Amino acid sequence: MAANDIATSETTEGPVLAIINRRHRALHKKQKRITQMEESISQGKTLNKEQEEVLRSKPAVLVLIEELNKLRDPLSTAVSEEISLATQNLVEILYFGSLLDVKCQSDLDSDSISKLRSLIMSRVDSSLSHKDALDCCIDHAKLWLAKSDKPIESNSNVSYGALREQLKKFMASDYFTTRLDCEQKEVDENCKQDSVATGHTVSTCSKTASIISEELKFFY
Description:
Radius of gyration: 34 Å
Oligomer: single chain
């Protein structure tokens, strides 16, 4: 396979499935050679030692092809699930790192979460080229996904793994699952207060307007 074809394959299939499929194609190519050798033998032709060695590998080739066929779908599913999980983990840090309301959770280091979000998606050091800055962002994202014991910054005592564990506990709390309802109640309560305040203001303005209107009558 040409280098460009390999690169295209890895882009569309991913590196894991690309390796499986390359191995699968190589085995099919070998199987095709074996079939041709068998046809040559049936025609009375003689094989050399290298060809005889290839022919003797037929049982192993067939077994490997069968095993790869069995592995392809489960591997494809596993890779898809891993990508989905990694995506979810990245979205979690980006999502919660941008929220202000998580600061009320004492067991959650919201400052570090916000900082890590910035490290993952921002050009923190303006002296870096965009390429180098992006590489740094990717490195932080990889360390986050790997639950690394390294600190998120050189001057920080919080590691990626510890922060993920904090976020995991937070997402298992009632606050995480009920906050939307609470927020809706809070919004409704605020609306009621605004409505009362607005009604009071309108009423006050109406009374004031009536008083001014009565007083102006004396001037006309």
